[in-house]
Each structure stands twice: as C-alpha cells, then as structure tokens.
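Technical annex B. To support the medicinal chemistry partners, we prepared a structural model of the target in complex with FE2/S2 (inorganic) cluster, based solely on the information shown next.
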Amino acid sequence: MDLKHVFEQVDGILTRYPQKEAALLPTLHLIQQLEGYLSQESIAAVSTHLNVPLVRIEQVISFYSLFRRKPVGRYLVQLCTNISCSLLGADRLLDRLEALLGIKVGQTTPDGLFTLETVECLGSCGTAPVVQINDVYYENLDEDRLQAIITSLREKMKP
Ligand code: FES
C-alpha cells in the first residue's frame, strides 16, 4: 500500500464528513501504520489532499504522543514503566534491555532492528511486567525471558 491507497481510503471516510479536516487523525494513523512514522513529505501530501495548513497538522502531531516523526526500527520495543510493572521489576528490565540492545530509551540500534521506548500502562497490569514488541505483548517477564525474546528476534532477522 502506498500513499495513493491511503488517500483512496481517506476519500471514503470523507464522504461521511462535511469538513475534510475531520479525516486528519485517521489519515495520519493510516500513514504511520504504512510507513512507521510521519515524514515531512507525507505530512505535506496530507496538507495538500485535505487542504489543512501544515502548521495545523504539526500541532495535531505534537499533541498526540502516539505519532512519530522519526523512523523506528523493525522491532519497536515498548516497555511499560507504570506502577504495577515498576513494582515488579520494570527498572531492572529496562537496564537489561539497554544493555542487550546497546542503546538508551528513545534510540534505534545502528542496524535498524530495534527501537526502545518506555510507555505508560499497557492495560495488562495483572500480568506485569509487560513489554510490547510491535503488536505482540510479552507478559510476566523476567530478565532471562526478555533476553531470550530479544535473541530470538535477532535470530529471525539473520539472512
Ligand atoms: S502498569 Fe504495566 S501494564 Fe499496567
């Protein structure tokens, strides 16, 4: 799927709304799903297609923390550091992740495989501590299991 197909979907959404700007959030979501982040080029295309000023789109993107302006790695590793996960060792898991990946929170490994983020509650407090990697939740984690998960993801990507 490319931006053209995103805009075809958006045009379908637009038939339900009198104002084009109403489709801004779903459009940005679709593009981020497609490209992993919102590039300047994509934002400019959205601005033209929806006739919404660039500055308005930038405001919306900066308001919603789920939108990304930088590319992320093949695997987006999001460790919950909220209360339940913290009480059950999220800090130790974070130290281990930084050591395993050789990066700090907010960074991407030089090979482009992993991006590391901390996030607020993932809604799985009963199985804390939890990390989400792309669309998959890994629950009741400990350091050894975390290491095994990262190792297995690295193995998968070997040629
Ligand atoms: S506090 Fe981590 S999932 Fe809720």
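Notes passed to the chemistry partners:
Helices lie at 3-14, 24-35, 40-50, 54-63, 83-87, 90-101, 143-156.
The longest helix spans residues 143-156.
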